[in-house]
Predict the 3D structure of the following.
Amino acid sequence: MVKQNLRKLTLAAVLTALSIVLDILFKSIVPANQSFGFPFYAIPLVVGSIVLGPIYGGMMGFISDAVGFFAGGSQFAYDFMFALQAISWGVIPYLIARRKSGWVRILIAVIASHIMATSFSTLASFLSSYAYSNNLDSAIAYATANLPLRLFMMPVNIIIISYVTFTVNTRLEPLYMEFFEQKRTKNT
C-alpha cells in the first residue's frame, strides 16, 4: 500500500512539473496581456485526473497554478480564484472518464473541463477587476475583453487536448497496469 501511494505521488509530481513547464513555456511565448487561451498546461492535469483520481488531480491543478504563477514572475498578487480553473482541469475529467476510456469519453471530459475552466477564469477576472476598480462596467469589460477569442479557440484546444490525452493514455496503459497492479506473491 505504501509503495502504491508513493508511486501515485511520484506520478503526480512528474505530471505537475510537466504542467508547470508547459504553462511557463506558453506564457513566455504569448504575453499575458495578449492571452487567448492556450491551456496546454492542462494536458498533464487531465491525464493525472483520469489516472490518479480527482483528489490528486485537484492538488496537481492547484500546485501547478501556484508554482507557475510565482515562477512566471507576475507583477500581480496571487489570487486563488484563478487557481479554480487549473483545479477544474484536475478534477472534472475523472468524473467523466477513466484510465481505459475511449476517445469519446475523453473528449466529453475535456469539453466539460474547458467550459468550467473558462467560466472560472472569466469569473476570477471579473471579481479581481471589480475588487480593484469598484466599477461594474469596467470589471465586465475587463473580464470579457478576450472572451470571444478564447471561445473561438476553444474547439481547436479541445481537439488538441483530447487527442494528446487519449494518445498518451493509450500508449501508457501497459505502464499503468504494471504501475498500479500489485504483484501477488505466493507464500510457499
About this structure: Residues 184-188 have pLDDT under 50 and may be disordered.
